[in-house]
Automatic annotation (TrEMBL):
Signal peptide: none annotated. GO terms for molecular function: NAD(P)H dehydrogenase (quinone) activity. This is Putative NADPH-quinone reductase (Modulator of drug activity B). GO terms for cellular component: cytosol. It comes from Phytopseudomonas punonensis. Residues 17-183 form the Flavodoxin-like fold domain. The keyword Oxidoreductase applies.
Length: 206
């Protein structure tokens, strides 16, 4: 977590949005981090307040050992993450696609944090549920090695559908924009710099 998020300090926010970025890669240095910093720069330039949670730097067990059948106490960093999600008006998830899905660390974070009573609530004697985070929007910045057309038309874009519909949508968070940066592996330095400029532009439009 950034120092702003750790301390709980609330800067002067004015009319800007409260934006929480969640960087969902365990790697300490990656294209995802560069994209996140560029997005944050663009957003701050427009007067928005940006905080970050870097999942590779916080401490928690990513395994929900007993599902929802037992209460698994949240670590301090996860309790703070829930507070930051409540604070935020807009969420930004920055992560790679591995094996067609979310990195295990990000999936484990979502399993542990988006709990019943916090992110959703099942209704008694009903198959329906209440979406408890419905006042929030999200942007997704996603890196892939698979070309976009192949990921969409051959694989069916499973990571995108999971994140937009069955995770965020289930909790009431509306995905505003999903931006792919692909293919990463054969990309040139010039291409990566162009992606970073795109991320900054997205942040300025937050």
């Amino acid at each position: 977590m950034t120092e702003t998020a750790k301390s709980g300090a609330t800067p002067l926010e004015g009319d800007g949005k409260r934006i929480l970025m969640i960087i969902g890669t365990p790697k300490s240095d990656s294209l995802c981090h560069s994209l996140a910093e560029a997005y944050a720069l663009g957003a701050r330039t427009e007067g928005h307040v940006v905080r970050q949670i870097r999942l590779g730097e916080i401490s928690f067990d990513p395994i929900l050992h007993e599902g929802y059948s037992q209460n698994q106490p949240l670590e301090a960093d996860l309790l703070e993450a829930q507070r930051q999600i409540h604070w935020a008006q807009h969420l930004v998830f920055v992560y790679p696609v591995w094996w067609g899905g979310l990195p295990a660390l990000l999936k484990g974070f979502l399993d542990r944090v988006l709990l019943p009573g916090f992110a959703f609530k099942y209704r008694s004697n009903s198959q329906l549920w209440d979406k408890l985070l419905s006042s929030r929007t999200a942007d997704l910045l996603v890196t892939l090695d698979t070309p976009s057309w192949y990921f969409r038309w051959v694989y069916g874009a499973p990571a995108h559908r999971q994140m937009k519909r069955t995770i965020l949508g289930f909790c009431g968070i509306k995905t505003r924009h999903l931006e792919e940066f692909t293919p990463v592996r054969p990309s040139s330095e010039a291409q990566r710099q162009n992606w970073i400029r795109r991320a900054e532009l997205l942040g300025s439009r937050a």
